[in-house]
Design brief:
Layout: E1 4-5, H1 11-20, H2 25-36, H3 51-60, E2 61-62, E3 67-73, E4 79-86, E5 89-98, E6 101-105, E7 109-111, H4 120-123, E8 126-129, H5 132-150, E9 161-164, H6 174-185, E10 197-201, H7 205-214, E11 218-222, H8 228-234, H9 243-253, E12 262-268, H10 276-286, E13 292-298, H11 312-324, E14 328-331, H12 356-361, H13 371-379, H14 381-388
Parallel strand pairs: 1-2, 6-9, 9-10, 10-11, 11-12, 12-13, 13-14
Antiparallel strand pairs: 3-4, 4-5, 5-6, 7-8
Helix pairs in contact: 1-2, 5-6, 7-9, 10-11
């Protein structure tokens, strides 16, 4: 039997592994608690496991955390870790402390293949998916490292919320994401509520439906535009799953969601998607279709994007259009931007396998889309279907 990393297993997977060793289910539950609740990495520490099981495990299993390449602390208390995942790749994980919670932002991929215009991760390209164990290892390290650093009492959590908003598109790594989510939610591991685990997606419609059926947690959707013409430029995935299909999937998701709304993320880009006319388009888009709230995100500039952050007064005016129409709207407070840990800034180190720099060099400059563009894009619907085909 090959030596396996036990961080790769949810409880069902660990049970099946222990059964292969001739052990009963309760042993797998004990082992699961030692790994995730107590942060043990040495089988010799697991005092209530039978000595015979500990000896078996020593020969066939390990607990392999990610190597920490660096740690940076922001002036606002945010902490960013760079984890080496091998092969020249490294991913970033961010802890955001607040008075009433501790949120961990976790990466799902080394790089990202979606290529959103405003995201520095996408400009690095894509190397590979992370395994379930590599996703869970980010939480395992942060939780137990912070417990020691903060001198927390037994049973007191450092991490109360997890957001899958780090590097990568989580729903394009679904096979690894699902077991990792189950570990986060399991009462024998981290015991997080479904309302406190959020998966963010740029709009992979078929996998939104699968997540609804398999493990409905809180859902955040990177929208960033109210019409297809503009969103095609900002979020290339929109050419495959346009806004109407995305909203229909969001509405279906609410049938089983732990919250009664979907969060739409909207990165505010100066002169691109931040006009009152576009805000009104958003109102018309979601009115009577899907229960939602909007999170307006200040853009965090990086040189390759060619984009700028919307001025504060324009963000405020945009928010007022939504709020006056009865749409719940918040403006995200930027955290960790002095260590490049804020939204859209995570880059890590990626051995790009997608030749993104060559593709970006031929990308057309972004257009400024005004209200009439929505009508033009509707007139061009047949060409969209040809493109998707």
């Amino acid at each position: 039997m090959n030596v396996v990393n036990l961080l790769e297993f949810d409880l069902d997977g660990l049970t099946a592994f222990c059964e292969q060793l001739g052990e009963k289910r309760f042993r797998s539950t004990q082992l699961f608690r030692w790994i995730h609740q107590k942060g043990a990495s040495d089988f010799a520490q697991m005092s209530d496991l039978a000595k015979s099981l500990r000896e078996k495990l020593a020969g066939v299993a390990t607990l392999r955390p990610l190597a920490v390449a660096s740690e940076q602390a922001s002036s606002d208390g945010t902490i960013k870790w760079l984890f080496d995942v091998g092969g020249g790749d490294a991913v970033e994980t961010v802890f955001i402390p607040e008075d009433d919670r501790g949120t961990l932002c976790i990466s799902a991929q080394a790089g990202c293949a979606v290529g959103c215009r405003f995201c520095s991760t996408g400009h690095q390209g894509f190397s590979r998916n992370l395994s379930s164990g590599e996703i869970v290892a980010q939480l395992w390290y942060a939780e137990h490292h912070l417990r020691r650093r903060l001198k927390l009492a037994d049973g007191e959590r450092a991490i109360t919320n997890v957001v899958m908003m780090g590097m990568g598109e989580p729903l394009q790594n679904y096979a690894a994401l699902l077991p990792a989510l189950r570990v986060m939610l399991d009462d024998h591991a981290y015991g997080l509520s479904r309302r406190r685990v959020t998966v963010s997606t740029s709009g992979v419609v078929p996998m939104i439906d699968r997540l609804r059926d398999d493990c409905p947690v809180a859902l955040a959707v990177s929208l960033h535009a109210p019409n297809d013409a503009l969103r095609d430029d900002l979020v290339p995935l929109n050419r495959k799953y346009p806004i109407a299909e995305l909203l229909a999937a969001c509405k279906r998701y609410l049938d089983k969601a732990p919250r009664d709304f979907i969060t739409f993320e909207y990165c505010m880009l100066d002169g691109v998607n931040d006009t009152p006319e576009l805000a009104q388009q958003l109102v018309e888009l979601v009115r009577d279709t899907v229960s939602c709230k909007f999170n307006l995100i200040p853009f965090n500039p990086f040189p390759e994007s060619g984009l700028k952050r919307s001025p504060r007064d324009r963000v405020t005016a945009f928010a007022h259009v939504l709020q006056d129409a009865g749409v719940v709207t918040t403006v995200r407070k930027t955290r960790g931007d002095d260590i490049d840990a804020a939204c859209g800034q995570l880059a890590g180190e990626v051995q790009d396998r997608t030749r993104v720099k060559q593709r970006l060099s031929t990308r057309a400059p972004i257009r400024i889309h005004r209200a009439e563009d929505a009508r033009h894009s509707e007139d061009a619907a047949p060409s969209r279907q040809e493109t998707n085909a």
